[in-house]
Amino acid sequence: MPLLEHVALKALDLGRTQVFYEALGANVSRPAGGQRLFATFDGRTRLIFDQVDFSPDSGALTYLGLELASFDEVDALFTRLATQANIHRDMREEYSHATGPYGFFVLDPDGYVVKVFKYNATEEA
């Protein structure tokens, strides 16, 4: 089965984008003379951001999904991001005792929506 190795996106300010994706737990690097940013998750899938001089059309992408290992990790990341990013939708209460994605949606600095979640496969959390 093929592996999704990367998704290429655009960013207006790579410094702000770097800070945001580091807060999400990505391993971040800036090759190509600093005009490109790689955010790698779990050593496999990468987001590649190219520096642009105009605000990207973040509406062209529905969202990026980032699954964590536990509800506690989701809660900890929510707490950390709530002070520095725009939380778009919090679904933690809705799915704390129901089957579905326990988590939240947050906007990155360029308006891309990132879904941070842990699937709740049972009726009991």
UniProtKB/TrEMBL annotation:
SUPFAM superfamilies: Glyoxalase/Bleomycin resistance protein/Dihydroxybiphenyl dioxygenase. PROSITE patterns: VOC. Keywords: Plasmid. It comes from the Bacteria. Residues 3-119 form the VOC domain. This is VOC domain-containing protein. It comes from Deinococcus aetherius. The lineage of its organism: Bacteria, Thermotogati, Deinococcota, Deinococci, Deinococcales.
